[in-house]
Amino acid sequence: MNKYTLSKRQAVNELSTFYSFIAGFLIALIIGSIILLAQDKNPIDTFSLMFRLSIGSVNSLSSSLNKATPLILAGLGIAIINTVKLWNIGAEGQIFMGAIGVNFLYINLSLSNSTIFIILLLLSAFLGGAFCILIPALVKVLFGVNEIITTLLTNYIVIGLTIYLVNGPWKDPDSLNFPAAAYVGKEVYLPNIFGKLSYGFLICILFTALAHYLKNKSVFGYEMRIAGGSEMTAVYAGINAKQKAFLAMLIGGGFAGLAGGVELLSQTHRVSTGISQGFGYTAIIIAAITGMRPIGIFLVGTLFGALSIGGSVIQTIGVSTYIADIIQASTLFGALIIQFFFNYKLLKVDDD
Amino acid sequence: MNNKILETKNITKSFGTLKALDNVSFNLFEGKIHGLLGENGAGKSSLMNVLSGLYQPEKGSIYIKKQKYKISNPDHASRLGIGMVHQEFRLIESFSIKDNLTLSRSNIHKDDFMTAFKKYSEIFALNLSENETVSNLSVGEKQKVEIMKIIFNNSNIMLLDEPTAVLTPQETIQLKNSLETLATEDTKTIVLITHKLKEIREFTEIVSVMKNGKMVSQDLLTQKVSDNELINLMMGNVKKSQINKDNTIGDVKLDVINVSFKDPVNNIKKLSNVNLQIKSGEILGLAGVSGNGQVELANIISGIERTFEGKIIINDNDISNKGVKSRKKLNLSYIPENRLGVGLAPGVSVIDNSIVRDYFQTKLGPHLSKNRSAKYLENLINQFSIKAPNPKAEISTLSGGNMQKLLMGRELVGNPDVIIAAQPTRGLDVNAVEGIHNLLIDQRNRGSAIFLISEDLDELFKLCHRLLVIYEGKVIKSFTTTDSNISSVGLAMAGINE
Question: Model ipTM?
């Protein structure tokens, strides 16, 4: 009788993540097509319409890039934390906390110089995100509590906090009972570079470079990698593994918080439960597909932003917007399956 | 000695090119306590793993009560009445004692369970309720439950892999009494794997000795064999050194003064009043069976373990309170026993692993340049002839020998003043061992002070000027390798100090 077993490959192709992504995306398009066909829609027409309406013009491209910005920033936050082999499922909550941080500083401070004010507000967003992950980070390094669970739970707490704030102390009397805080003043809006493209996207490029440097080129990133590989090796090398894990979590949380801050200052302009439409969860997909590589996150994040825009406009021809979600999620599944076969090979074993 | 319950004939088991078991024959007699003696890597655990169904031998046969069996898995072994207690316990910590004991016998009647539980609790002097959660138990208590578990699985043949390694002296005496009761009253057949002669003496009636995967002596009556004979069987013929030891010896480089250490987790004393001095150009060996405090001592000297009493002095600097990095700056290198996991970080690339020692020094940092790291690795690869074709590949894609060369190279490339090398050749093939020895000798000739921790007496006699023997955390004896004999070192390693 023959049995099969999996064996880890000695050398994995360096571009395997890229190939897996392409293959995963093709698989996702096929799955999307099947669903569209089942609804009597022509997949080629639908996809080309999505394509045209998401990147076909300067305006639509700008919308896509604006949409991609929080996805990328949150994805970077997840990738930084994963350098120490920890998972941040709490980017969604950190995004909300970032927005709350912005509004908190905005209503307590008044500055005439709007550039400095905006920078301070963004800093407050970063700190808000870091604050959001503080307790998961503390209990992780002190007691070893699983960060996947604690960061997930903080999402519910922060969303609860947001609902409380926008229905209570921060409720805007002019919002016609819509639960939202008051708009921030126009002087702190993030301006557009040109057309509809916000400076938020520039911040996003900057932080992608920063994350790339931090993860791959800095001593701190090296220490995080060793600490993530083996806590014992870290101690042996004189690296405080727990401290690295703690800092990585705070910085990663800060990146996701910044996503919320940028989204508020450039798009929504006020705190409401609509600050994020699951950006923090989509960011997990993006980070996972790219193998936690900042530049990959930037590229895939941009694609996913375009998919979201494309998905929201095809409603006009009677196709559900969820087709974009389906494609995003199936890309991850497809990519993970293909990546698996890059990492492992199937061996036949003789069983006598 | 007439009731042979189990017999193996010509068992052979290889891993790659290494023969872990080479034509091994082994007998067990009903109701007796057997000792299986041998150094680490002699094949004791492999043989037990064959009997308990974890390994399938390539050749050879197993007879239980004269009938031939092919034991295909641990479950099968258990049905044949063979149970094994591993060094690492296999208990479910969050379950109660009862649930652990009846894991594979959930249909046992409550009264039957209680009768048996009471009986064996008495034999093992275990004063606990059957509902107690296992995670609340002490190590000694967990072991009792572990042994009871194989009894509840109806095992008549009980294989115990170094059961005393985790026990206090009092618990060891207790275990001895329990096992004797089990052998005489329940006619259990017991095998005790150990490398402590004292335990062979105290626990067993019959002893067999293994070396290098071979059974070198079988079915000796413990009372009729002397310690010296056993040591000679266990150690074999040790070749005396052919290495020139007349190199110049300089000043004291490393001074360890009165170091004592208690394990903070269980408060067991791991080191008591250790003193040693190593001079430039000298190799000092630390002989001892592993688990007698060697890892703790190396960790204390290298700065990993900071909660100890006593002083560590390197090059006249008292560094007792200094961390790992300051000690590295004083040019101390440490080659840890645990290659992958401590010395090298699994899941991390070859290039990242190659700069663990020096990454924070100015020659590489503070901004970590890819080019400089790549050059650093390239230099290691050339100087120490390491086979590592892809620097970005994960470290565990290298062979064991190349991993060790990378680790050694990384620690030696800066020509350290003090080197701690713990089991540097364990598990390597002959050529790799030779290469590692030459590296150490080069460093010695250059003027390094080398502290070589090893269980391999061949290696210690070949390389060292002097030898210390550590036993239960104490340095119990000191030898010069040129004029002492192997068996007195072997006896000291086994805890016999006369």
Answer: 0.84
